[in-house]
Amino acid sequence: MNSFLEWKLALRNLSRNKRRTLSTATALIIAFVGIAVLSGHVYNVHRSVKTSMVYGNRLGHISIFKKDGIDKYELRPDLYEITADELKIVDEIVAGLGDRIEKRGAVLWAPGLLSTGKRSLPVLIAGTDLGMEEYARDHASIQAFVPEFAAMQERPFLFQAVKEVPDAISIARGVRELLGLRRPFGELSSDEKEVVLAARTRERAFNAVNGTIATTHMTGMPFLEDTSIVVPLQLARELVQSQGASHMILFLKNERQTQDTIEKLQSEFDARRLSVEALPFADDRIGLFYNGTMSFLLSIVSFFSVLIIGASVLIIVNSMTMALLERAREMGTLRAFGFTPQRVRGLFVKEAFWLAGISSGIAIVLAEMIGYFVNRMHIMYETPGIVYRTQLRIIIPPWIYLPLTLVIVVIATGFSFWLVRRKTRERIAVLLLESGAAL
Amino acid sequence: MDSQPLIRIHQVQKSYRLGEVMIPALKGVDLNVAGGEFTVLIGASGSGKSTLLNLIGCVDEPDSGEIWFDGQAVAALNEKERSELRNRKIGFVFQSFNLIPVLSVAENIELPLLIQPELSAAERRQRVESALADVGLAEYRHHLPDRLSGGQRQRVAIARALVTQPKLILADEPTANLDSKTAHMIIDLLLDLNRKRNVTFFFCSHDEKLIGRVGRVLHIVDGLISA
Amino acid sequence: MKRVMSVFVLIIVSFASRAWADEAAALLKASDQARGGVAEGLTWDVRLQSWEEGQESDRSFTVRAKDVDALVESRAPAKFKGEVFLFNDRTMWFFKPSLRKPVAVSARQKLAGQAANGDIATTNYARDYVATVEKSEKVNGVPTKVLLLKAKSDQVTYDQIRYWVTEKSKQAVRAEFMTLQGKPFKLATFEYKNTVVANGRKLPFVSKMVIEDVKNKNNRSIMYYTKPRIVAHPAAIFNINNLSR
User: Fold this and answer.
1) Which of B91, B117, B161 is the closest to A2 by Cβ?
2) For the domain with range C2-243, which CATH number is right: 3.40.50.150, 2.50.20.10, 3.40.50.720, 2.60.40.420?
3) What ipTM goes with this model?
4) pLDDT tens-digit profile of A127-137?
5) Residue C128 · residue C118 · CB < 8 Å
6) Domain B7-226 has what CATH class?
């Protein structure tokens, strides 16, 4: 088809009413940029929160619990722990999945008490595999995506502290407040740092072990800040007299493989009749803060996107309608010398395509520029639920530009198609009679 | 000349609705136009001449009666066939030129050829050049219409009508927007083309001065033709 | 441990001198006495058998009590030897030789899960409860007065206790521990076949106590008391600082 001239014509038609073209294009650009920048903010939040929770708070991509353990372990740890034997099999199965699993580690939770010798606090003791702790706490993505979280981490990390002090434990900031240990650790006396951890053993007897407070950690969840204690896995196991675990945590190389990995794991578990289940980070019982934050943000962005796109549609419709009125006679002329209604329509659709395409191109450049400058400004803000101030960052994922462009182009061309349809079906004689801007 | 008339019109009637009133524009017209003829239809405004022209050009349909073009009953054609017919056999020249302002002279002329897929780009260019030469605007090929005078614009329109090598060129008051000197020049051009290219010309006008210059004159009054 | 500690609730007695306000208070006081609160000090052995959530345990302790304090030392099985629970008023301490410090547990605090430490802490019924006589009833053919004890403050573990005290011998033979709404969740029964000689008099002393979970009768504990004897305990042994060096 000889449409090169038609494309040229469509493009040149944009210059027929420069003011209208410019205002329509501006509206489209603003809409595009608005959605892109908003998405950039949401994407950054997603990345920061997920990274800080998965790695920083060691929640991992996948958690393996005893069936129903995630809900019931705290009430009946003896019934819902993964026993030492089961743990061995789980470990085997996980290892069998090869290097899609970047790191794994067992965790043993024990609800208990932390005693200073004079008084006690109720705490949730998390015995953690220190190799996994080392991997997660210092993970490269923390520094890359959420440096303000990294900056707030207290050093040494537990896995470093145990090298000096074998019974080192880490307490959450809230616990530190409750204990009144505000001074830096270096200034505290041994008596202040030496504590006793108590809990029920698997046989429901009362037991206690020594611990030395060596550092603090952030839990990322406000309701845990007052009760979280992290200890080496071995210490927790000694406390509850068990070599099992409450759960195992997996870190994946590629988090997009989460669902697939879970399915593979679960089928293996079922095949070996293990009463354990693999849960994703996305499960509300694990990643609630992330899920909640994201669904809130996404609903806001969706709402605004709909508004913005709605406004764009109206603008396009208005602009197109004006163009049609002005060019009725021209349409009649084209029809007169043989253009089918479809071809005439095609001209307007091509014009809309040019408008949307060029606007999108400009918008992409503009959005990137805005992102660049906002990021350089280092704007910090507080968020409820996060203890550290986060930087307002716009990270527009490249894969959003294509769908956004498609949406704008489809809307522009779709609506122009629809509007032009009726006009092109009018009798040529009538079209020719209409006034217009033709020469 | 063929024995069969190029255009044959039999008892054609056409009315228009104007608000709540039906205005009869054509009240039963019979007409034959032979190939190669240069015919002008003279009538006052409202006489129905434009209506008749539109019907001949297949840009409108009669309420009743029959129209044959080049031996074909127009009423039997579907929309696509009609578009094809117009493209290949009919050329239009309008009173207000109806050029596309954002295209150059050459591009305007080329437009009707876009629908003929069998032509290559080179062939199209050749036809455009030929049309430009016919109307004497070769050196204006890259100009935009707004840089041309009225007469030049009309010549572009004529070239555009010619480029498809039609059998018939219809012109609706082609000189109405031109001064008399230019108008005569245009008529001369049309006559010249009629002789050279053997294209049938049928145009309508209200200008009585043209009577003497053209071959066949028809009068239309109140929707009916008189010789 | 929960069941062991419930015992001490009932055993440890206060001899604070108060006016005997009414019949109920009098009965309460007398029942406390019948369970042998002695000024100098008391020692006895306890064997605690308990069945909880399908798990059975069998432990033995030696208890030394005086006033509101009690020192409980684990004797058997061997793995618990050396473990010590100390009760001072409303505070419980846990200690064993490997620890640098004792673990403090206060009355209203809960170890997560089943343990209610109020079971562990010392209660003084006359001090902590207001008693009214509800009715008279016969338990195993013996006439008893049923007292309704209502907690005076929210520091006390049980909001309400229904207490059966025999009219003649003034011994508590039965107790029902209830929520604020009056729903019983624990039942206890007592036997008094021991005697202890105090101030030249022979006092009856509890020999067996059975505690049951109302909702799940399979969760129960039985305590056997043996060899109660008057021993003058120095106050120092009930001081946590002495325990943990």
Assistant:
1) B117
2) 2.50.20.10
3) 0.89
4) 999 999 999 98
5) no
6) alpha beta
